[in-house]
TrEMBL record:
Electron transport in keyword set: no
Listed PANTHER family: BIOTIN BIOSYNTHESIS CYTOCHROME P450 (PTHR46696:SF4), P450, PUTATIVE (EUROFUNG)-RELATED (PTHR46696)
This protein's name: Cytochrome P450
Record's keyword terms, sorted: Heme, Iron, Metal-binding, Monooxygenase, Oxidoreductase
A Pfam family assignment: p450
Length: 401
């Protein structure tokens, strides 16, 4: 039997093969503050895996995000200005406030009709069309089209956004030839949004690129580096979380027959089912911090300068908080999940992701459709995103199932 001390969370096969639930159960029970060496010569990192500890570290003033939020010490935006992901208070909140008014529930709610039309346009040619890849046909396209509308990106350019996102979100060999792929994609993203930004400066519109192009913080316009970093983080975060939630949610529904019908019985059931999907899927597996003061946990101490990783995916399966945690239960009463992270850096686009998922699963029910899984899940090789690369399904009328 594997010992807790020997577990290596940089081994991507654990996540690609779906073995992480058993690994994290062992860590929560036997090694809740787990030291992990880095096989690439990095300095190593601590992991917190219990729900209570994840929430504590996420809210802990004795940590910083400035050294990175992924396990490797790198920043997606490069070495120029930092994105909101890599800024502590008060700079983080100042920059976050630029976009917050445009992603509040009342604002994103105005997109509901457009999201519904987009869902129907995506579904129409797929109903009864036989086996298809849900990720390619629906899960990756819906959030990109909605995000494009929000940012001001034309629909024709969304395939490029998807390609860049895939290349930067992981080093899965299907999308990446190595770190240089992400660097090249980042430069293409910067060039694209700089051109879009120039057009918005000339003729502002009601989109977030227009907002950022004319925004000020402390009386000063955003710098070139701040703008580049903001575009990058919005593009990746606005796509990955929703895509993984939709794909993982469909997979979950297929594991629990009758759950889709139950979710369709009322708006309350639908909202509860989406929250359970967020818990069960955990679209973002983890986030990292770096200690700036000693942090004592479980008889050990994280020293200043050491990395500490919060595993949201593990906290969401903690049986100290959730009963029968490895089972998808849309009627679950415990809703205190970590699906959008926790604390001041919780997901900026949470309201939009929830709305997209609610509209998608509601329209399936209203149209009497069932998404029937037709093959095995092909998972992303990543310990950062809970991604599904390919999910073979058939979309059929419920009466034909």
């Amino acid at each position: 039997m594997t010992s807790a001390a020997s577990i290596d969370l940089t081994d991507l096969s654990v996540f690609r093969e779906g073995r992480d639930a058993e690994v994290f159960r062992l860590l929560r029970d036997e090694d809740p503050l787990h030291w992990n060496a880095e096989p690439d010569g990095g300095p190593g990192f601590w992991s917190v895996t219990r729900h209570e500890d994840v929430r504590r570290v996420a809210s802990e003033p004795a940590v910083t995000v400035r050294e990175g939020t992924q396990i490797p010490s790198r920043r997606a935006e490069g070495e120029s200005a930092r994105s909101i992901h890599h800024l502590d208070a008060p700079e983080h909140l100042k920059l976050r406030r630029v976009v917050v008014p445009h992603v509040r529930p009342a604002v994103v709610k105005r997109l509901e009709g457009e999201i519904e039309r987009t869902v129907d346009e995506l579904l129409d040619p797929l109903v009864g069309a036989g086996e298809l890849d849900l990720v390619a046909e629906v899960s990756s396209r819906l959030p990109l089209l909605v995000l494009g509308r929000l940012l001001g990106v034309p629909a024709a350019d969304c395939p490029d956004i998807l390609r860049w996102t895939n290349q930067m979100a992981s080093q899965d060999p299907e999308y990446s030839d190595g770190p240089e792929t992400a660097v090249r994609a980042r430069e293409e993203v910067f060039a694209y949004f700089r051109e879009l930004e120039a057009s918005r400066r000339a003729a502002p519109q009601g989109d977030i690129v227009s907002v950022l192009a004319t925004a000020e913080v402390d009386g000063c316009p955003l710098s070139r580096g701040q703008l580049d970093a903001y575009y990058l983080i919005l593009m990746v975060a606005g796509n990955e979380t929703t895509r993984n939630l939709l794909s993982g949610g469909v997979h979950a529904l297929n594991l629990e027959p009758g759950s889709h019908a139950w979710m369709g019985e009322s708006p309350e059931n639908l909202r509860g089912g989406i929250e359970e999907m967020l818990r069960w899927v955990s679209p973002v597996l983890c986030m990292r911090r770096t200690a700036v003061e000693p942090i004592a946990l479980h008889g050990r101490t994280v020293a200043p300068g050491e990395k500490i990783v919060m595993w949201f995916v593990s906290g969401n399966r903690d049986d100290r908080v959730f009963s029968d945690p490895d089972r998808f239960r849309p009627d679950r009463a415990e809703a205190d999940h970590l699906g959008f992270g926790w604390g001041p850096h919780a997901c900026l686009g949470a309201h939009l992701a929830r709305l997209e998922a609610q509209v998608f699963f509601r329209r399936l029910h209203e149209r009497g459709l069932v998404v029937e899984q037709a093959g095995e899940v092909d998972r992303l090789s990543s310990n950062f995103f809970r991604g599904i690369k390919h999910l073979p399904v058939r979309i059929v009328e419920a009466a034909r199932v």
